[in-house]
Write a structure and sequence with these properties.
Blueprint (H helix, E strand, L loop, with lengths): L2 E6 L3 H13 L2 E6 L2 H10 L5 E5 L7 H10 L8 E5 L12 E4 L4 H10 L3
Parallel strand pairs: 1-2, 1-3, 3-4, 4-5
Helix pairs in contact: 2-3
């Protein structure tokens, strides 16, 4: 079974590092640089097992992406793992899990397991 994950991260170095971790964990990774690009991929591509989204990206934030995903019947059941370089804050979206960057491989694996990806 192919496990797909959508990674939304605007920082190229961070994006490459997380993608490598996900691929080593057996995921097929689709990558978006921001929420708008992620939304385009979600609108026309296969449904991922999970979405790993940076909260602060240009054009469309992770907050806005999470809200759209949750309002869309085809996507509403896709778990979102939010990530940010900022400590846990009051304005964290209703995501299934949260990772504070930088995070370890073990923390990423914990979050993926927690959301059932």
């Amino acid at each position: 079974m192919i496990r797909r994950i959508l990674l939304v991260e605007d920082d190229a170095g961070m994006r490459d590092a997380i993608r490598a971790l996900l691929e080593r964990a057996g995921f097929r990774v689709a990558v978006a640089r921001d929420g708008a690009e992620a939304w385009e991929l979600l609108s026309r591509g296969p449904r991922p097992a999970a979405i790993l989204a940076d909260l602060y990206t240009p054009r469309m934030t992770g907050h806005d992406l999470v809200a759209r995903v949750q309002r869309t019947p085809r996507l509403a059941s896709v778990p979102v793992i939010a990530m940010s370089g900022e400590r846990a804050s009051r304005d964290r979206p209703a995501a299934a899990a949260f990772l504070e960057k930088p995070f370890s491989r073990e923390q990423l694996e914990w979050a993926l397991e927690r959301v059932g990806a």
